[in-house]
Amino acid sequence: MRQGRAILLLLTIFIIAGAFGGLWYVRGFISGVAPLVRGSPVLSDALPFALGEGFAASIFARGVPGARVITRDPKGALVVTLTSEGRVVALPDLDGNGKADRTVTILEGQNAPHGIAYVCPQTGNESADQDSCQLFVAETDAVNAYGYDSDTYTATYKKTLLTLPQSGGHSTRSLLAHPDGRQLLVAVGSSCNVCIERDLRRASILSIDLTTGSVKPYATGLRNTVFMAIHPVTGEIWGTDMGRDLLGDDVPPDEVNIIREGGNYGWPICYGKNIHDADFDKNTYIRNPCMEPFEQPSQIDIPAHSAPLGIAFIPEEGWPEEYWHDILVAYHGSWNRSVPTGYKIVRIDEHGIATDFMTGFMDGGEVLGRPVGLLVEPGGALYISDDRAGVIYKVARTSME
């Protein structure tokens, strides 16, 4: 009897193990095969990148694990969020040799800090403007305001502007100071791959009035807009957005959108150029429910699962004329595609045509790095955060011809 029970127990264990193994296999088959990555790569000064003609890359800062958003403080120091480390750091380059002198912690113990923005009063007095600037930091569950001292790289907590939901997926929160100088935009990703959100703050961009503190919806139907940028000529707000998963290798596209106040960009029932997601939304309609004026189509479609993050407009000063006002977009790279895609930075022109600008983040299935944030500056300079390698790259022009 005992022997029979032992055999039955072993059979049960094998059945359960087989079931879980089968589920793992099915999940892997549906999700695709992600590149094999072993540990954090150590990149030498001989970088593996191929760049646009006339540009070269170097390492500006090492030892910045989980580096994401890049900006400059009021006196010009590079400031970066280390989201996975819970820190915000300054990377001053006081001697101007193109490499950070040191890493200074501005804030620590944060809940996945991601978006950062400096807002300075317009008084006409440059020194007064710098000394009165506020630093805004978006953590997963809140947006906080700090006083900031550019000389000592220190931040002093002032108040919490907004609390945010932190359950579910897509935990990064992003910030953009609106060009009108009165609003701070906060991007909040969806809690899921595809669903009807109960909390309407998810999958949206919110607006905080910096004078009154009031909060209102700015745009909706954006599954996960992690980065935004302002067009240097039109003042329009552009943003990258990631499409849903589990519809195959090539559907739906990721997106670049022009984000207009009051716009609905379709998620979860629409994607791309007003395409209805019939896999999720089983309702029957007389007309396409995704057509304008109810939903905004994407401005530019990007290959599915590229995971577009950083977006930046190229200025005129110091850049080749054919680059002027094009956008650079960082493709963080796929995790759920049978053939990996992304892992590069592309330049997209006014017609939506993408050209590789910087490749080499992946070599033969091994991921050497993953580009995230972009800071484009006059003079042909570009700073790139890499949350895989834990470095900040600097790309500069080698020739001004």
TrEMBL record:
Keywords: Membrane, Transmembrane, Transmembrane helix
Gene3D superfamilies: TolB, C-terminal domain
Entries under SUPFAM superfamilies matching the protein: Soluble quinoprotein glucose dehydrogenase
Keyword Membrane: yes
UniProt-listed Pfam families: TrAA12 (PF22807)
Source organism, top-level taxon: Bacteria
Keyword Transmembrane: yes
Limits of the Pyrroloquinoline quinone-dependent pyranose dehydrogenase beta-propeller domain: 51-397
InterPro entries noted in UniProt: 6-blade_b-propeller_TolB-like (IPR011042), Beta-prop_PDH (IPR054539), Quinoprot_gluc/sorb_DH_b-prop (IPR011041)
Ranges that cross the membrane: 7-26
Identification of the protein by name: Pyrroloquinoline quinone-dependent pyranose dehydrogenase beta-propeller domain-containing protein
Native species: Candidatus Kaiserbacteria bacterium RIFCSPHIGHO2_01_FULL_54_36
Organism taxonomic ancestry: Bacteria, Candidatus Kaiseribacteriota
